[in-house]
Write the structure tokens for this entry.
Amino acid sequence: MFYRRSGIRHTRYQSERQLFPLGFDRFLILSVLAVLLAAPFLFDRLYVTGYLLPWLIWSSAALGLNLLMGGAGQVHLGYGAVMAMGAYGSVHLMRFGAPLELAMIAGGLISASVGIIFGAAALRVKGIYLAMATLAMQSIVDFVISQTPAISGGALATLQAPPARFLGISLSGERETYYFALLVCAVITLFMLNVRRTSFGRALAAIREKDYAAEILGISTLRYKLMAFWVSSFIGGVVGSVLAICYLRAVSPDQFHLDLSIQILAMVIVGGLGSVLGPFFGAALVLFAPILINNALGSAFSTFGMTVPIDLRAHLPLVAYGALVIGFLLYEPYGLAKIYSNVRTYLLVWPFRHAQR
Amino acid sequence: MKMTRRTFVASAAAGIAAPTICTTGAFAQEKVVRISAPQDFTRIYTFVTSEYSQGQRDYFTLINERGGVGGYKLVIDVSDHANDLPRAIEAYERGKREGAVAIDPLSTPVARALVPRALEDKINLITAYSGRSDAADGSVFPYVLPLSINYWSQAGLIVEQFKRIEKGSLQGKKLAFVHIDTPFGKEPLPILEVLAKREGFTLNAFPYTPPGNDQSAIWPQVRRARPDFTVFWGAAVGQTVALSEAIRNGLPMDRVSSSVWLSESDMDVVGRAAAKGVMKIEPCVGGREPKIIKDILAEVVGKGKGAGPEAKVGTGYYNYGVQMASLIAEGVRMAAQKAPNGPVTGPWLNAGLTAIKNFTAEGLLPPTTITPDDHQGGGMGRVAQWDGNKFVPITDWFTANQDVVWDEIRKYSAEFKKSGK
Amino acid sequence: MIDWILLAELGVNGIFIGMMYSLISLGLVLIYKTSGIVNLAQGAIAMTAGYVAWALATVSGLPVLVVAPIAMAVMFGFGLMIERIALRRMIGHPVLMTIMLTLGLEIFLRGLLPGVFGAAVKRLDLGIPQAPLFVGELLLNRATLTGGVIALVLLLASIWFFGSRQGVVMRAVADDQTASWSVGIRVERAIAIAWGMSAMAATAAGILWGATQGVDWSLSLLLIKGLAIAILGGLDSIRGVLFAGVIVGVAESLATGLLDPIVGGGTRDVIASVIILGTLLLKPHGLFGEAHIERV
């Protein structure tokens, strides 16, 4: 009914192989994109800088991690450290006067070159052991950053991000930063949508399913595992610099601790491993569930005139957030994207359920 | 099974779609000054936040019950940001939209991220006992107001107190500085180094890893260094562990001091009797003696309008909250004096806050003067000693080594200015 | 130039601290051994136990040592409950999701308990005197000494347990779940008991650490140290926990004494990380762990 699949006949390979073969999907994507483009003019500043901007940035980061975890099946608990290197690299370069475009790429390259060391651990161990190895690397990177005044920026350990210009446009207002983050996010999303259709993406999928089997098929696991870490860390570094410049505006070591890694990991898993849509759902849930629950509780308590001890009231969002993570994993381990795709599959042929393949 | 799944999804959806805008309409008709207080109740600052916030809210209730200040009622929106930047920034933007003219995040990382925003938006960012120490320089940070003695001043006060104990000279003495290995813990180091040179004492720094629940390998070294004085610098669990390790290693308690972060409940954890003699910095009077606290007990808590358990009224951190609230209220009073009809904006309140002069909140605070240049309020504090039951002040309000402190403040604020924001 | 007495003191205290940490690792190993899951909520379970013990002691007015067995019983039930409600339903799903589930559990518990009991630090008094205890020129820390000895006893008890009938059952499950099933072993029950026992180990850790640092959410941070020890010893070896606990404890303690002055920072935690990383790269299955042969 909504998707109107009947009558769509692809007469050329090209049209069947396009990213979104169904007209309705294209329509959906374009309308979401249109809303995002118009957002700074439609919504209040609260929603643009308080919600949409962090959503775009965290989604981009989760996409980068998802390439590694969902795409290549490599667990990574140290993505926050990868982003930290990008953020610090680019902010330092900009303080030396490098333009943003260059600093961003350089930040990505720094992250990628250190991130590939994380990947070296993946050659040796996997699964739960790899998770522990990356966890250890996260804290080593944290240590190095906070113990090196040259990196962290002296006694106050805060580095202000200098004013940035992107392609001649100053990124000082909230609209400019929003569009910049949107652009970066769009580029990363496009890359992710297409990467699965390349030989690189397929090699990663083979490694994800079984690395020994992939090796036997002639895929160099050494090369592709390292490449997966390289690409994913590059994206992490770029997103880290966007995060520092557009959103945090000042970097300090505690912003990139294990908490950030776990937050992004939760986004990927709750959103849906290996799906491109998943990180967007996951980021929205992980970032905003506590805020919304907090606000909803606040208004509920004040309208019903309940007096709840402040400690309990403050901790309830955390409880609810934990319960949501557990609940979603128990209910649908493949994440929100899977729930969406279930709904979509149902609606594809609705109301003619028997026509389902 | 099917039903439960469905109800689960439905309830989850309901939770997400629940109304997000919450404003209290109670004061809609009156002139209000709105203060946003997103604070960390759940993550790092748990040890202080609930008492601090209770004090703040009780004081604002007291003021509003008495008819407000300068014709204005004070509204405080408390929420939890869990030390998480997206949540804090959302709370900041929300507060701004609802017309808040001041924001009190009580968290150093959050304050750091909000500084450029507050400067741009001209919203008063209260960074009591948190945030950048160099924010005391009002000429660079017009809208960032610590309103309290920063860590550099606290270190200066402690050294001065030791000097008094030693009858005026620290020449040849040894000072051990045991600190949490974070930017916050390392902050006093430059001041102590300068003072070590000036006063002629040797400084040994012993960093411990955060959060400091295990310091067993640090304190034997401290003991063996045989310091004449020991300063421990941390927060939350690090403080109680440091203090109990100091006791176990047999350091003389009356030569051990900490910053403002030592409270009665810490003493409960360590053991009230064992910790006798330890010193801390008091930025305001503790206990229930000050008139304001008595008023709160009578007019707010006595009438069942208290924001939390009565037992917490008058604890150290509770009084810090009252201190901040009274300074904000005084700022509103001054602002209303200057421009009685508002409009209530950030600059309006800022003009009031920076005009506070010799304010003592009826004996709760040291005389505090905030000027457009000095946002610290004079750097006055006093040293209090634990007598096994409560903290007893052993000095008057005093200030010391402010020249060194201000050198450092100017150094970093100049750096901030140079970075172009 | 080297201060040998200081080193000896650090070493001795390090051993006991390491033993106290290894209680967390014991819980991790019990669960990993039977079900192949690394329980990242182990620290939070220890925190829960700390709160439970505190609440029991406060409500009943009895000393902590008296309520400790009750707390252990409660926590045993709690461990069974976690396994039954959450983990059992995840059987057959990728390992990543079970990791995330335990992380979700960690978040949940870290919100629930401070929310219910209040976030301020709670005092848990075991009645160990604070006065310094000197042996020659060495100062022994009474609290860690007691804690270490209790931990050692519990570790030895669990090694003994694995020789008992139920222990043999659990070893069989650890070895091969399907094969155990076919000879009539109730695999789910063995896993559930492992969870219960691991929660009991966490209770001991929660109470001992709660007594040294006070009970608040930061007890959940013990996880990282527990992980380092468990990985160094081998995730499926209880004997390994014992040795690795000593090694990690001493290494951290000595690093604090020798490296900190050179680096000018707290190296303690980074040592744990270096140990994890070094073990994984050099000997992935730890000192005593079994290497699994993977087949395509």
